[in-house]
Specification:
The chain has a domain of 193 residues. The chain is 76% helix and 1% strand. The protein contains twelve helices and two strands. Strands 1-2 form a two-stranded antiparallel sheet. The two termini are 29 Å apart.
Length: 312
């Protein structure tokens, strides 16, 4: 029985029950304007954007690190991608988003290793810099993706790209040392060093991988919304939290051996909750309170008793 409770199937069952529960609650409360098949597919398409970011954040969160520059990098990379797309089409768009985002991740990793200060401090400073660079790059103008370059704005383009991102994460976690070493560093950094793991190297790799996935998220985000506007005054901070919520699901469910599916399904659950409150006409403040409370309860209950399942 204990073996089953720690199995992959048991983890899937918990996630499935969560989906059914939240869907049923809002369907009962507002049956006329929530939860139709078309609506559910729309919720899923929006949630996979955050799932991609959640997969990237997983690589650093399991090491006990955080990154508040994710939102700013989404904005900057989207703007760079759109600008390059005007001359180079899809090549400029994809290379601009992925290249800019990954470069930012490498810079963050280097600064974090060199400065020896908490990741939150480093990334908050980088966030402010990226916001200013984005304003300069955009020239104060809202950047709009050309209609002929919006293959990733909806199915099947967005699902294909997100699926490739999930497959890449699965490969890294199962067939490279990165996933194993990141988990080892998060469990006990001192022991990991004694095992011969180059901790600074893998933290740098973690930040680079995170922001590579942020680049994919930027492609999906600007394709879905078609425009991107540069923001200042830490306004990009709000873009950090929804992908981070999915990451918490992944960290909590990694003891069942399925962090990727937990991130994807977890983001879908969050989308159901958000859209359920929209259907009810609830004010945004109530949505945030209840969603945050539900997330804390879910992560606490699923992480309890799991060795290494709580982020330091």
């Amino acid at each position: 029985m204990q073996g089953f409770r720690n199995s992959r199937l048991f983890g899937f069952m918990i996630l499935a029950v969560m989906v059914v529960f939240f869907y049923a609650v809002f369907k009962i409360l507002t049956p006329s304007n929530f939860g139709s098949p078309a609506n559910l597919f729309s919720y899923f398409q929006s949630s996979i954007i955050y799932s991609v970011g959640g997969c990237g954040l997983y690589f650093i969160v399991v090491m006990g690190l955080f990154d508040f520059a994710v939102g700013a990098n989404i904005v900057l990379s989207s703007i760079v991608g759109v600008i390059l797309s005007e001359k180079l089409g899809y090549v400029g768009f994809i290379v601009g988003c992925l290249g800019c985002a990954t470069l930012v991740g490498i810079v963050i990793g280097i600064l974090y290793n060199r400065l020896n200060v908490p990741s939150m401090i480093v990334t908050v400073g980088i966030m402010l810099i990226l916001e200013s660079v984005a304003v300069f790059a955009a020239g104060g103008v809202k950047q709009t993706l050309a209609p002929e370059l919006r293959f990733f704005s909806g199915a099947p383009g967005n699902i294909i790209l997100a699926g490739l991102a999930f497959a890449l994460m699965w490969f890294i976690l199962n067939y490279t040392r990165i996933g194993t070493y990141c988990n080892a560093i998060g469990s006990n950094e001192f022991t990991a060093k004694n095992m011969g793991i180059d901790v600074k190297k893998y933290k740098l790799i973690g930040f680079a991988l995170l922001h590579f996935f942020v680049g994919i998220m930027a492609v999906l985000t600007v394709s879905y919304g078609t425009t991107m506007t540069a923001l200042t005054g830490m306004s990009t901070m709000s873009r950090n939290f929804q992908p981070l919520m999915g990451t918490f699901f992944g960290v909590a469910f990694r003891k069942y051996g399925n962090p990727i599916s937990a991130i994807v399904i977890g983001e879908f659950i969050i989308a159901i909750i958000f859209n359920g409150f929209v259907a009810l006409g609830a004010p945004t403040t109530i949505q945030n309170v209840v969603t945050g409370g539900a997330l804390l309860a879910i992560v606490t209950l699923t992480a309890r008793g799991g060795r290494g399942s709580v982020v330091k």
